[in-house]
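Reading is simple: the token line describes the chain's fold. The lines below illustrate.

. . .
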Amino acid sequence: MEISLAELAALLGGQLEAPPERRVSGVKGLEQAGPTDLAFLANPRYARLLASCQAGAILVKPDQQVPEGLPVIRVADPYLAFAKVLTFATAQPYRALGVHPRAVVEEGATLGAEVSIHALAYVGPGATLGDRGVLHPNVYVGPGVSIGDDSVLHPGVVVYHGCRIGKRCIIHGGTVIGADGFGFVPDGDRHFKIPQVGIVQIDDDVELGALNTIDRAATDRTWIQSGVKTDDHVHIAHNCVVGENTLLVAQVGISGSTKVGRNVIMAGQAGSSGHLTIGDRAVIGPQSGLAKDVAPGATVTGTPAMPHQLWLRTRKLIERLPELFERVRSLEQTRDDK
């Protein structure tokens, strides 16, 4: 990337306070950036570094105080602007590779225009891959699977039969979509398997991290709606619904038939029991365990999960339990002595 500050400010819709003809060609942190680099300040705790920063320009908020003469571009959200700059700087024109001779595309599969199917990828009979679809090595696309335009499946992704993936999806290595849901019913001392005959449906613009497991439904579908983003090692069980633009952080586990609303955030290692409803825009704190529904907009933490402010008060009490125990024991001893 090499771009003038005037062009960069126009690209970001920002207010330039620096020489417009100056050019930058790299993106670095505040401490590492030099005269040809762009840096950004998103967290105010690092504002102290502005005085010594040598960057060619810095992305800051509109109200950020800066040393006199420091070259800045003022934007509403510096972190978002930084992401847009990186996207611009790393964009590569798509070049279709076609079907590698060592890939297998079964009879009856349908391939869109300008696809890239790498060595050792497999496309089953009746499967459909949209225009500009990319299957990296060792991807398995089962019979009857449909994958929309511009979706990318990274190495080792497995998509079981009949599942549906939308447009512009990114699925990272090792993720398994459509394995059987965990369904068994007691039969004496044994466990009788419940056939899992539904599918997984993944809508447009979803990104799944590495080593996710999304189970197929017992009937109907497990449904990941548009804009959902997951971290690595996330598990979504059978017949769950995950609402639009929800974020699931690493090691989140969602039990069967749970409905997660729109724009929910479930932090790392949070988990839910089955058949729950998590309302729109709820926030589930890290390592929280959900045993009951969560209201829209609520923030809950802990195991069992409770309102976040109550959890903070409870957490402080836990630290004082040894002291409180000794006080109670002392009071009991005094009473007994009387």
